[in-house]
Design brief:
InterPro entries: RecX_HTH_1st (IPR053926), RecX_HTH_2nd (IPR053924), Regulatory_RecX (IPR003783), WH-like_DNA-bd_sf (IPR036388). The chain has 161 residues and is mainly α. It contains ten helices and no strands.
């Protein structure tokens, strides 16, 4: 084995040792996107780390501010509502399926609803539909509450006149 092969082999071994640590693996996962506590716990356990190591890693990340379910839920709700135009009902179901606490979900959705202006988004969308009923059905399927749909449609219709 020549020097270059030996060096390559040692680099690979060193890299494997570094990624075997649960904290390094968790930080690697968090580098790509914000994750929820339960989601990260499952990923670490699936990787084969012991329960004590997983809990210690999660506590460390919480203390350092890398892991915050409330912030993650808010960012998730904001993205789903703003970019994918999902309503609160669908966002609530998605967050529940990710294992987020009910109180955190409600606060995140309220905060996201305060920040988003659906009226401008839906004004552009209105041209795709023949009439008001089609748009109403579309919004209901996307997870908007009937009262919110009526409020939005009234503002859109009021703004055109």
């Amino acid at each position: 084995m020549d020097y270059y092969q030996w060096r390559k082999k040692n680099r690979r071994r060193k890299r494997n040792l570094q990624t075997k640590k649960p904290l390094n693996y968790a930080l690697k996962l968090l580098k790509y996107r914000v994750r929820f506590e339960d989601e990260l716990r499952e990923r670490l356990k699936k990787q084969g780390f012991a329960d004590e190591e997983v809990e210690s890693t999660i506590n460390t990340l919480k203390k350092q501010g890398y892991l915050d379910d409330e912030k993650a839920a808010y960012l998730f709700a904001l993205d789903e509502m703003r970019l994918k135009l999902f309503g609160p009902r669908v966002v609530r179901m998605k967050l529940k399926s990710l294992g987020v606490d009910e109180e955190i979900i409600e606060r995140a959705i309220e905060k996201a609803l305060e920040e988003i202006d659906f009226h401008e988004e839906l004004k552009r969308l209105k041209g795709r539909f023949k009439d008001r009923w089609e748009l109403r059905d579309y919004l209901y399927r996307r997870g908007f509450d009937p009262s919110l749909i009526e409020e939005i449609l009234n503002k859109i219709d009021g703004g055109e006149e």
